[in-house]
Write a structure and sequence with these properties.
217 residues; outer membrane lipoprotein receptor (LolB), chain A; 11% helix; 15-stranded mixed β-sheet; mainly beta
Length: 217
Amino acid sequence: MKSIIRSAALALTAVITTTAYQAQAASKTLEYTVHRDGKTIGTHSYTISDKGDETLVEVTTDIKVKVLFVTAYKFIHASKEIWRNDQLVSLNSTTNDDGTPKELSIQANSGKLIINSKVKDQDRRQHADTPMVPASLWTPNIVTQNAVLNTLDGTVMNITVEDLGTDRVEAAGASVSAQHYAITGELTRELWFNAANELVRVRFPDKTGTEIIYALR
């Protein structure tokens, strides 16, 4: 009888522990279709997981531009960010920028961000002050910044942000109200955040001046 009671107690404890962990580790994924000049060229996504005071953000991008069925340009990117108490503490990314490999590792240490990057096998070490927001775009905190971190090579990009007011945009199959911001300077992006502070749309010109749109699906 005692062994049965003990087994039941252990099972109940396991259920409670699992439930508590799930409650602490809430996760959501935002997925986007990437368009270039109205044509679908790839996908982009964020998976955001919260556990206590820590947030893990996983970013993936897979873009291929084809001309006459031949891939003329490709961009494949994956990164992981760890935030603690709303401050970036680490970021690691790998990128294939049309055949150019890029690697980035960022760690917070004593009020500084230690930035190690490798582009075309060339190593570079940099520093930046904390707090600093990466240009991964998912957090609305980016619109309060005057400088952001490039998530491919770790360089600091100076920016200006303008609030363009409220728009209605298509997102996830519906028309939604979203706050519209324009980022200019060393990074050019237009961002739309909904009432839940979720990024629902991104627009910017590529190197040829052609319009790129990330649309939440």
